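Quick entry between incubations.
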Amino acid sequence: MRVLITGGTGLLGKALFEGAPKGWQVLTTSHRILPPAEWRDCCHLLDLQDEAAVLRLIETLRPEVVIHTASIGGVDEAERDPVSVRAINVIGTATVGRACARVGAGFVFISSNAVFDGRHPPYDEQAPTCAVNRYGALKIEAEAWVRASTLPWIIIRPILMYGWPLPGGRGNVVTRWLALLKTGRPIEVAQELYSMPLLVDNCAEAVWAAIQQRRTGLYHVAGADRVSLVDFARAVARAFGYEERRVVPVPSTRFATLALRPVDTSFVTMKMEQELGVRPIGIAEGLATMQRVQVVVGP
Ligand SMILES: NC(=O)c1ccc[n+]([C@@H]2O[C@H](COP(=O)([O-])OP(=O)(O)OC[C@H]3O[C@@H](n4cnc5c(N)ncnc54)[C@H](OP(=O)(O)O)[C@@H]3O)[C@@H](O)[C@H]2O)c1
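Done. Structure below.
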């Protein structure tokens, strides 16, 4: 089986690459980040905005499945510059999808919990979408393109992911909080927000399970625990040997963010568990996994 992962240098791309089924040929793309030396033979430079390059690469590599993780993940960036972000997150997705159609590849699109407004959790795969910000609206638009296509498709909606990115990669809540904890400063955390934090390796496991089982359709993927972000930050402090009292709950109005954040987009994970056979990992286990890996590779 030959699989191409777009955005292999991202948080999820890296976990997918590292967790790929044994014996499968896995190829990836990078954009700005230099991939680790051992990936260089299978990692290709790609800008999703270069339509001809996307079509050429996929026609040359002829993967049987493309896992499309590459995107702009900045929620505030999407609010500030929706045209540029749409060019990558929506038009780029459609370009990758058209290339898949040309070579007969299956298409796995990584969407987001941001398709929901967070007012009526928990959300299952039937729940109607309704975004509170542009980033979420662009994910809804990209999903609509995928659903309307004639491709065999899987859409995975991960929720708040955490794990170790590649050096120079985009941080996530855990790595950002750890950076603050290291400097001795308090971490201010929005007290109204709830989530089901998802260890990125757990998300990669669900993606690979869906592909190996030749599934099609939509899957919500989340960790086992629904927690407030404040409790999650306290768990991070505990797991890495810092004092919990360094976590300071504050109203979300304290943060000067451009985009609204949904309050609670917690998922129903029944399809993930029963169809894919993947066990959602809780925050204690997920953070312990991160902590163990840190000993080997560093932050
Ligand atoms: N992180 C989360 O909590 C979360 C939650 C829900 C859904 N998601 C979704 O999950 C997917 C993966 O997220 P992630 O956190 O792994 O993302 P990430 O760490 O920000 O990585 C994004 C990847 O996209 C690549 N990329 C960015 N612009 C590109 C362009 N113009 N052309 C080609 N590649 C480009 C980046 O390449 P370089 O790094 O080489 O520049 C990187 O490999 C995304 O679709 C995201 O929306 C993420």
